[in-house]
Amino acid sequence: MATNFVQDGDIVTYTNASTAILSGALVPLVNRAGIALVDIAGGASGSVQVEGIFTVPKTTGASWTIGQALYVDDLTGKATVVASDNVPAGFAAADATSGAATGNIALGGNLASGNPVATVVAAVAGTLTGTVDGTIADIAASGGACAGSASPSATNVDSAIATAVASIVTGTNTQHKELQTTLNAVIAALKAAGLMASA
C-alpha cells in the first residue's frame, strides 16, 4: 500500500463547528453532503459517510423522482429538491411522494440536475448577440459616413462624429451588458453544479 494512504474515500473525518449533530443526520459539506455515522458534539470530530444510499428526512410538499438532484436545506437539515441557497447532496435513489417525511438519497454522484459540466456549458451555449434581434453590435461599422457632399461642411462633420460616437457608446454598452449577463449565468451554473461555493 502507498505510504501516503490515509483512509478509504467513502468516509471522512468532520470537525463540527456548530451545534451537536446526531448519528444519521445529513451533514452539509460546502459543495456536497454526508451522513454522520456517530453523534458529533459541537467542537468535536466524527466520521461522516459521503457515499452510499440512506433514508433521510425530506422536506414535504415536493415529490422526488429517482435520479433527481437533491440538496440539504441548511436551515432544517432535511433533503430537498430546491437548489437555491442549499448544498448539493446527491440524487434520489427512489421515487418519493410529496407528503412523505423521508426519502432515499444516493450521496455523491451528479451533484446537479444532470451533468455538472453540461450544466455550465449550457449556460454559455450559443454566441454573444449584442442586441435583442440577434445581430452582434458592429462597433467598427458604427462610424457611419459624413453627411453632405464630397466636401461636407464643418456642421456635417460634427453631426456625423456625434452620431458615430453615440452609436459606438451604445454598441459597447450593449456588449458589456451581455457579457455581464452571460458571466452571471456561468457563475450561477457553477454554483448550481456544486463547482463553486454559493456564498
Task: Give your account of this protein's structure.
It is a single chain. By secondary structure, the chain is of the alpha+beta class. The protein contains 2 helices and 9 strands. It has helices at 116-123, 154-192, and strands at residues 11-15, 26-28, 33-36, 45-49, 52-57, 69-72, 79-80, 87-92, 102-107. Strands 5-9-8-6-7 form a 5-stranded antiparallel sheet, with no helix packed on it. It is elongated. The two termini are 39 Å apart. Mean pLDDT is 78; it is low at 110-115.
In short:
By secondary structure, this protein is of the alpha+beta class.
- Tell me the number of helical segments per DSSP (H or I, 4 or more residues long): 2
**How many angstroms does the end-to-end distance come to?**
39 Å
Please identify the structural class as seen in this structure.
Answer: alpha+beta
* Biggest sheet details: 5 strands, antiparallel
Contiguous uncertain segments of 5+ residues: 110-115
| Cα-based radius of gyration, to the nearest Å | 27 Å
Strand order of the largest sheet: 5-9-8-6-7
Number of strands: 9
Percentage of β-strand residues: 15-25%
Q: Overall 3D geometry?
A: elongated
Element order, helices and strands? EEEEEEEEEHH
Mean pLDDT: 78
Q: Main traits of this protein?
A:
single chain, 199 residues, alpha+beta, five-stranded antiparallel sheet, four-stranded antiparallel sheet, 2 helices, 9 strands, elongated
Topology:
Elements: E1 11-15, E2 26-28, E3 33-36, E4 45-49, E5 52-57, E6 69-72, E7 79-80, E8 87-92, E9 102-107, H1 116-123, H2 154-192
Antiparallel strand pairs: 1-4, 2-3, 3-4, 5-9, 6-7, 6-8, 8-9
